Amino acid sequence: MTLAQMQPRPAGATPVYRTVADTMDPAGPQVCDDMTVEVALAVMASARTEHLLICDNDGLCTGLVTHAQLIAVHDDSAYTDRVQLRDILDNRGAFTSPVTPIVEAQHAMRGRRLGALPVVDEQGNCR
Fold first, then answer.
1. Which residue, 2, 42, 75, 76, could crosslink 24 as a Cys pair with Cβ 3.0–4.6 Å?
2. pLDDT at residue 92 above 50?
């Protein structure tokens, strides 16, 4: 499982056709969508990461959640300790393919203000 992350290009760098696969970084922990927010916060703390890749019971990527998102849910007055990650994912997240041109992925990330973009294969499995 990997994430495409934005990396600044040096000034004067010659553009080269590169794909997401050329720039993928190892992702943080991959967790199941039935994990509670409490446990997810603990996993993030122990892994020292700012995001978790979320998969369903079949291993299909369903989204990415950030520490800030989890804290917002946790601090909400309607929060209970039974809230699961699948409860807070509002829709299937933004994903990219390993063969997507890096320029296209960066454009999508800027447009959505994402710091990371999960990379999935043709079947939706986390890469």
1. 2
2. yes
Q: What six digits make up the tokens of 65?
A: 């959640």
In angstroms, the CA 5 to CA 20 distance is: 9
**CA–CA distance, 12 with 30 (Å, rounded to integer):** 37
Q: Which domain holds residue 51?
A: 19-118
Give the pLDDT confidence of 8-47 residue by residue, as tens digits: 555 555 556 677 676 666 656 889 999 999 999 999 999 9
Calpha distance 30→44 (Å, rounded) = 10
Strands (E), 1-127: 2-5, 25-26, 30-32, 51-55, 61-66, 116-118
Domain count, the chain: 1
23: number of Cβ within 10 Å: 17
| CATH code for the domain of 31 | 3.10.580.10
